[in-house]
Specification:
Length: about 260
């Protein structure tokens, strides 16, 4: 009887352990896709990647996608300092290069979309801004991204190409922060991506200007070397590049690579 009771206890503990393991780990499909996925992505991808993440979860049972959105340069620094992530999507090749040159990429980055700057102004364009030169009017308050951020580097390129000397009242660490200055009425205009102006079209208008064609940003995406869920990470990258993922990005205003 003592042996029987001991066997029953061991069996119960094994069952409990199995239940605990099942509770901790979401189900993984026969193709190995499942579990938690962490994606570091440029701030300008917030709306479109959030939607793509939901769609990806719906398509793959047991997957949970968590995003960290910020300036690409800041995300690259975090990755190189050991922050846990499976996928990196950058708003320009330069921040991605800092990750791959540090040996933290798995394979080669692939460009999946492109983006272009516009001038974001309050809804209705009360100051009748039509181009970059209007941003130099006396008293005009303009927000830019800091130059180490892709949207800031692009802004500096187009301003130099146009020969426009502009002194911003603030330099922000990502494009969403620059856009928020317009939405809150703290500045009269900001140079932001077309996609961000479109996402905020209830509050701002996006003024197109020809010089922006000279500074179109390529967006690369990459599975990271230390990815804890590499199979699902690769599936996510494929989904972003699929017709379904590209349709979401195109609707948001991104351009095909």
């Amino acid at each position: 009887m003592r042996a029987v009771r001991l066997l029953a206890a061991v069996t119960a503990l094994a069952l409990l352990g199995g239940c605990a393991e099942d509770a901790a780990d979401p189900p993984v499909g026969g193709n190995g896709i499942g579990g938690e996925l962490t994606v570091f992505a440029a701030a300008s991808l917030t709306e479109s990647f959030t939607r793509i993440g939901r769609d990806f979860e719906a398509t793959h049972e047991g997957v949970k996608v968590t995003f960290s959105f910020a300036g690409s340069s800041a995300l690259a620094t975090q990755i190189n300092q050991g922050a846990p992530a499976d996928v990196f999507a950058s708003a320009a090749p330069a921040p991605m290069a800092t990750v791959t040159e540090a040996g933290n990429g798995d394979g080669e980055p692939v460009t999946f979309v492109r983006n272009q700057l516009v001038i974001a102004v309050p809804e209705g364009n009360p100051d009748r801004v039509t181009g970059l030169s209007d941003l130099t009017r006396p008293g005009a308050k303009v927000a830019l991204c800091a130059e180490q951020v892709p949207c800031g580097a692009a802004a500096r390129t187009v301003l130099n190409a146009a020969g426009v000397a502009l002194t911003p009242v603030t330099l922000e660490q990502d494009v969403k922060a620059a856009l928020s200055k317009v939405r809150l009425g703290e500045v009269d205009a900001a140079l932001v991506y077309r996609t961000d102006a479109r996402a905020a079209d209830a509050d701002v208008d996006g003024v197109e200007f020809p010089e922006s064609a000279g500074a179109i940003n390529d967006y690369p995406i990459l599975v990271l070397k230390e990815a804890r869920n590499a199979t699902t990470a690769r599936a996510f990258v494929e989904y972003v590049r699929s017709d379904t993922g590209q349709a979401v990005l195109t609707e948001a205003g991104f351009q095909a690579p």
